[in-house]
Amino acid sequence: MSQDGDATDDTPGIAAATLILFAEQDTDAPLHLLIQRTPKMRFAPNALVFPGGQVDADDYRIAADPVLVDVGLGDATERAHRIAAIRETLEETGIAAGFMPPETFDAAGMQAELKRQVAFSDLLKTANLRLDLSTLLPWAQWHPRLSHRRFDTRFYIARHKGDLTVRTDVDEVGEACWLTAGQAIAESQAGHAKIIFPTLCNLERLAEYPDFLAAAAHLATVECRPISPWLHDDERGVACISIHEGGGYPITCRPLSTLQAP
Fold first, then answer.
1. Is 8 among the domain residues?
2. Reported pTM
């Protein structure tokens, strides 16, 4: 598939959101929370990914409620994606991000209620909580068009200053770990972790920055436009996958043979 051919495919994907947390501990680089998807997941089973998931109707209800969020931040779709990133991270890992006031509520209890499919909007109202969506910064938009199961995923970054204890949702998460970007890449190269193409690209990009402030400053230097990888043969006839230049990613083309299957 050529780049032009990829760009003409406007089939909508599943709206999703992902949260990349930065925990700055006594390490040479920030730690990021990664979860391993369970073997039964239809998309990327066993893969190591950042927390996240699909945007749902209740996320849009929250996005329109001035009691729960600042409705002046972006449009409703942007707010709903940030809300989904917060909700999915809490549901999958028990880690609370973007809450006001921060860390003054029963995160474990709310995680359990989300698991029971209680509406996130109801839980926020009951706990008298508000979401600070400004703590999530847009990092990237990935719109892959190379698979029958397509996602339109917005990635966000946020600083995490709280406890690193993780409580995983065993139905969706095999295990969770805090790793530097370099450590996660090394785990993949050693064959100890399965990392799919979008996650690998984002880990390589994260590895360029020593802390959250540096990563946040970097965002002002790049255009956050949709990334739709395309397949092609290089000048030697080697099958490759590429993404566009200028998006902040240090590696934009690589042989397909070097990648792990989704």
1. no
2. 0.91
